[in-house]
Amino acid sequence: MILPIVAYGAPVLRKAARDIPSDYPDLQKLIADMFETMYASNGVGLAAPQINRDIRLFVIDSAQIFEHQEEDEKGTYPDEPGVRKAFINARIVSLEGEEWSYNEGCLSIPRIREDVMRPQSVTLEYMDEQFNVHVESFSGITSRIIQHEYDHIEGKLFIDYLKPLKRKMLQGKLNDISKGKVRVDYKMTLAK
Question: What is the pTM of this model?
Fold first, then answer.
């Protein structure tokens, strides 16, 4: 089932999410719905706060980026062919490597894309869909998507990385998003 994505301004997007217990109701269906919602919205990652759930859950599929890249871009990133995965109760263990810039966007902040600096790699401790614990490192585009989605479960947005002047210049667009004045081709709901 495709779920509505909450727009910028929703309080859940600024709240640190809570851990998910192993008996969380219908978790497998929720994860499947999140992947379906992400694909229907042309996203590469989706965090539970974006569907109005204050839980530590996000899904990613960085393989989509590699499937659609130009021939001359192949082999540019160390994480090809990408990763499709759900992350439960994730915690960052470490961020490493040189920071690099990449133009990011967010399904909750449509029509705004900005360059954001992030470290090259991330090591996470997380649980898979069967609540098995993993400690794993990711690099390149996959690392960037994970860091972006991880920020969501911490109540942080990619625009928080922008310089104050840039954020001030975007404020009118952000206000329009929170008021529902921006049209998107996926199901979106306003802040409540």
Answer: 0.94
